[in-house]
Write a structure and sequence with these properties.
The chain has helices at 42-68, 73-94, 98-124, 145-166. With 177 residues, the protein is mainly alpha-helical. The longest helix has 27 residues, at 42-68. It is elongated, with a radius of gyration of 24 Å.
Length: 177
Amino acid sequence: MDKTTPATPATPAVHAGPAVSPATEAGPAQRGRGGSRTAGGPGRILVTVYAIFAVAACSRSIVQISTEFDHARVAYLLSAFAAVVYVVATVALARPGAAWHRVAVAACATELAGVLAVGTASVVDSAAFPDQAVWSNYGSGYLFIPVILPVLGLTWLRRSASRARVAGRPARESDNP
């Protein structure tokens, strides 16, 4: 083979779609996910706190159920239920789309109702709760964050849906970077 033969240039790729300038190209938040309002700023903090609570509640309930289940069945099952609610809320808050928005509202509302019901029951009848659940005493073991978090979540969901409607976009499709 002769080494003096120049290499042939590659054939340029043909692009059949419309020309896209860098200014109109979708950013990473819009590509593939549709752009979530929780992609940055306070929304990201909210999702992060929910994720931390999901891990904490899952870990707590797994340890409690696997080691001391006979001691306080109701409290430990309520901790497991709280863990499921936190996982669902985390995923729903992080995902774009109207369906995920509805799931997030339902998860935050379920969390608030659970914290209020379990908190009240644990105060009124402390004998029914020989050990703490995540939502016992309105989340006092977690600095009352379990009673504050769903209020913040529902407020965030309402405000972001209102902003999306004003901007003429469906809920959960904001262009937060």
